[in-house]
Amino acid sequence: MLNATAMPAQTQQAWYNPGNYLSGLPDLLQAQSPRAPEYPVLDKVELTLKSLYAGRIGAQQAIQGLEGRWNLNTNGIQNRGLMGKGAMGAVGKTTLVAGGLSILRNMASLAQGDVNVARATGNVAADISAGAVGGLAAGALGALGSTAFINAGPGVAGFMGTVAGAIGFVAVDTLLSKTGVKDMISDAITGRLEGADGQSSLPVELSQQPYYPGY
Fold this sequence. Notes:
By secondary structure, the protein is an all-alpha fold. It has seven helices and no strands. The chain has one domain. The longest helix has 37 residues, at 76-112. It is elongated and about 55 Å long.
């Protein structure tokens, strides 16, 4: 059996992390392009707008569905149908809004020289993906909230559905941010575009490491 501890330090690194030391292997989860500076206040404003919009769409879809059925006391099967309708109604519109806001922000960052085209494209792709997933959650919860309070009147039902949907959108967006999923999507797209420009998507010191065949 090969004893890894007897190898030189550089060889041990290649043994434990072989993917990082294959000089021709692109790493789609890494990108050289710098990230845009953070603007916490602007991020919160953008998140609030998207979440309220997504929740409102889901609530409206549910209220319209209930009014179309002329049945305020829906059962579980009908509720699930309305949740699906709310989710599908919100996902497309929320994706467009999320993408539009992201394009505006990244165009501003490009104009200021904070990011390059590759990073801006990756950021937009990440925001669109997060908007789509958040829209599904917000639409479903918005429809559920409206259905639960429909007997209190369309106004109250719409408000409660909007709040429920907004909470769902914020929860999903926060989860995607905290777990690094949004950064991973951004880096993947950015790294691909860097590779298309003839640049390595790996840091220089890693891409120049020798490859040890046979280990």
